[in-house]
Design goal:
Layout: H1 30-55
């Protein structure tokens, strides 16, 4: 009967303590990430439209 009990995780399971987070030397501004994503999206769109002509496929 004792084996039928439900075991719950400890109360701190899954929580991150900020003192444990290491600070990286790389710090990116959110604007740079958005610009990089938009640039990659434009390159993909360009290749979808003109890629076959450029590559001769």
């Amino acid at each position: 009967m004792a084996d039928d009990k439900i075991r719950l995780p400890s109360s701190t399971a899954g929580l991150t303590q900020y003192s444990e987070i290491s600070v990286s030397d790389w710090q990116l501004k959110p604007g740079y990430v958005i610009i990089a994503g938009a640039g990659i999206a434009l390159i993909v769109l360009f290749l979808h439209v003109y890629g076959a002509r450029i590559l001769g496929i």
